[in-house]
Amino acid sequence: MTIRGLAHRGYPLKHPENTLRGFRAALELKFTHLEFDVHLTKDGVPVVIHDPTVDRTTNGTGAVKDFTLEELRKLDAGGGEQIPTLEEALLLVKDRMLVDIELKQTGSMHAGLEAAVIEVIKRVDMKKKVFLTSFDHYSIMRARELDAEIELGLVIYGATPAVFPFMKQLGAKYLSLKYVFLTPEYAEEAKKHGIQLMVWTPDDENQLQTLKSNYPDVLICTNNLEGWAKVYQGA
Predict the structure, then answer these.
(1) How confident is the model at residue 159 (pLDDT cuts 50, 70, 90)?
(2) Position 32 pLDDT exceeds 70
(3) DSSP 142-180
(4) Which of 30, 97, 178, 192 is 20 to 30 Å from 22 at the Cα level?
């Protein structure tokens, strides 16, 4: 059976995060959704990596935006894996998963990120299989200005009702928040507005079981893929 859930950065508990190896593991476990993060290289290529620097997840040092794609290719992202391009990641899971692309925009750090990401999505013909999210809500506003149809979402830390009118204005239907802030009242409010809630990143199986029992409609974004699969299947 398929596992309704978001594989957070692939399967980072067992494989290097945000790598094709981790994404393949999520596919093998039959997860319905994949979440990963995108920055822009010095030469304007969207690449899949979480941090603004390569220091934590590769054997290199420095800001992602200061590397060309060719230079990034020379780095080891763990176990011989490379930092994938957005195009490579999308083609790997095309027609097999829905993808939450988190835009790692911070103010004006990545000029042109939104346009570059949307261009890749259109080129690989996956506009109906992805949605764009970000902590930087101005980035999501720019994405909407660039494309009237692409699915959008917001990432927030705590729960606030203030986002719902803004989301209606944007035509955004996904809302991702830290799981500890989820309450029955907030879930009901989101449902009333037609919003798909997502929570990040519960990993403990007791937490996962509680969320499954209390919030069956919420999408779980987790690092513990096998733990969630076990809970989801009622094993």
Answers:
(1) very high
(2) yes
(3) HHHHH-SSSEEEEE-SS--TTHHHHHHHHT--EEEEEGG
(4) 178
